[in-house]
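Hi F.,

I've been meaning to write this up properly since the lab meeting, where we talked about keeping a consistent format for the predictions we share between groups. The idea is simple: the sequence comes first, exactly as it goes in, then the structure tokens exactly as they come out, then a line or two of notes. No screenshots and no reformatting. I'm using this chain as the first example so we have something concrete to point to.
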Amino acid sequence: MKPDRKSFCNRTLNLRGIRAIGYDMDYTLIHYHVEEWERRAYEYLKNMLLSQGWPVEKLQFDPKMVCRGLVIDTELGNLVKANRFGFVKRAQHGSRAMDFEGQREHYARTIVDLAEKRWIFLNTLFSLSEGCIYAQLVDLLDQRLIPEVLGYADLYERVRQVMEAAHMEGLLKADIIADPDRYVELDPETPLALLDQHYSGKKLMLITNSEWSYTSAMMKYTFDPFLPKGMTWKDLFDLVIVGARKPQFFMTRSPIFEVVTEEGLLKPHTGKLQKGIAYLGGSAAQVEQHFGFSGDEILYIGDHMFGDVHVTKNILRWRTALIIRELEEEIQAIEAFQADESNLARVMAQKENLEAEFCQVRLELQRKKNHYGPPNSSTEAELEKAGNELRVQIEALDQTAAPIARKAAELGNQIWGPLLRAGNDKSYLAYQLERYADVYTSRVSNFLSLTPFAYLRSPRGSMPHDPKT
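Output, unedited:
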């Protein structure tokens, strides 16, 4: 199997012990052409702002400006990338990259903590249009071209209000239903993966925030052509819930309604849930009660770090898997960079040895000048000469390493670098991923290679003091 199509395990997971598997739909079971979808969402957002008199007519969607895992600092109007400890490693104010001194000035004593209202985590690919237009609007706000907005936090709230406008989502989804070939990336292997799980005896659930009319149309388009003759997508699932309102679905109890027509007409539901009937609303507690399963007997798979994975793991202790489609492109870039990576590691090893030698020479010179410590046969002049020679060698290695290191820092995204790395450390997204997702992979069809009976073992955790292999 190609490395970019593997599944990666944070916590050991025995699929034989999983009795029910729940799926999100958008960007999980169904993948979209990201740039097409987000550009269209951006256009609707821009048009709605134009209708309110905002000076946004010259703005254009930039798909590389923002990526999943960034954090919006609504206090300062910045986009930041933090490492697993919450320290900011890269930042831009509006659409302009922040230099080292500016970044140090603003964030030297600041830790990103998502519990604070100030920070907004970009959880999913759906965040790209939102993050892009917010950054561009910060530029306009700085130019005092949006006088009715009081500050960066107020600006973000205005963007969110427009993003959440129901008619914008309805218009966007109507576009997709009308021309699915333009927006949807078909994956014939995804229905096969679910067929394997279905016939292995696992209960399959579809739990999506999308409404019934959109869910029905898109699942029919993406699944039915690849299923056995006479079978539809609805036959795959033992439970279908639309309009779930995640993450509240996992956190609270809500009424559940039965979808009684293809147009989405509803009626209140009482009694037991049934296969073949779609429901709207409800809660995870009803799911557990319906199947008689709970906790680690249920695996839920989605693309939203908070709404699909965080709350599911934190509150219900369900097993979790996160879909990260960008992982494929990133792994491909990492694979292509292997020769450079080896060269960089060799140069850095040489530099570390020379730096250690240089530090020792400095110490010996310090002792010699201040007349303390063990005797040293070298003179001050000899030590100074040795130090200067070592400094020249270190600077030469820096010149060799700098362009390779810069290239490494741009893998996956020229502005923000690798999705799961922040410098030499793990990114804040990687921290969230390790904490809440048992498994992560780029697409649902990757489960084909695992089979429904696989035993996924996490790698042995390492510490800096562990022996190098």
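Notes:
The first strand starts at residue 7 and ends at 9.
The mean pLDDT is 94.

If this format works for you, I'll send the rest the same way.

G.
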